[in-house]
Amino acid sequence: MAGHFSALTTRGLTLLALVAGALAYQGFREPASFETLAEAGRPRYHLEGAHWRRYGDTGEPVFEATADSIDYFDDASMELSGIDLVTRGARGGWQLNAARGRVAAGERRLLLEPQVDIHGDPKQQPGTEIHTPTLWVDWSRRTLSTTDAVVALAPGRSLEAVGMRADWSGQRVDFLQRVEVRHDPRP
Fold it and tell me: What is the spatial distance between Cα 19 and Cα 38, in angstroms, rounded to a whole number?
């Protein structure tokens, strides 16, 4: 009986050693949750209450943004929510607000959506507002643009158009197609 017990103990210990070895080996591998995250397209980083400042090649501020959250992915793409962004040009800028934004992998521009509110510099363009469903913020070219419908409001007038292109400093806006301007005659 002692020999039988000894054979069972040896087999049991061998089995335990194999299980322990397998568990130890798995401990050296990257956790499965990271692989699952990458396959599922989940972010690598999630930031809340983020403040994002971008600088140009010579160190000048290009834009400053706050976001309720930023999800950053392995391919360097980003998804943002609750965005307030201010462009910083040589002679002014724009204030932009949107519910969401996306930067695709390899892009040097941000797509704001689903409703973007654009305000001009209060000193240069008091009361100027522009609204559009989507807006490209291109920090390398320092332009704002859309091919969607645009509504612009200013004291005493309003404008509807399709498409818009604006410089970074808030000095120039070009409305591209089907531009209709209405003036509010005041007595």
Answer: 28
Q: Give first-to-last CA distance, the chain, whole Å.
A: 114
CB within 8 Å of 160: residues ≥ 6 apart: 149, 150, 151, 152, 178, 179, 180
pTM over 0.70: yes
Around 9, how many Cα atoms within 13 Å sit in the side-chain half-sphere?
A: 6
Mean pLDDT of the residues in the chain: 80
Q: What is the 3-state secondary structure (H, E, C) of 100-169?
A: EEEECCCCCEEEEEEEEEEEECCCCCCCCEEEECCEEEECCCCEEEEEEEEEEEECCEEEEEEEEEEECC
Using CA atoms, how far apart are residues 161 and 109, in angstroms rounded to an integer? 23
The span from the CA of 70 to the CA of 51, in Å, is 10
Question: What token pair was written down for 1?
Answer: 């009986």
The dihedral of CA 99, 152, 161, 88: what is its sign?
A: negative
For residue 170, pLDDT beyond 90: no
Alpha-carbon dihedral angle through residues 128, 131, 136, 138, given to the nearest 10 degrees: 10
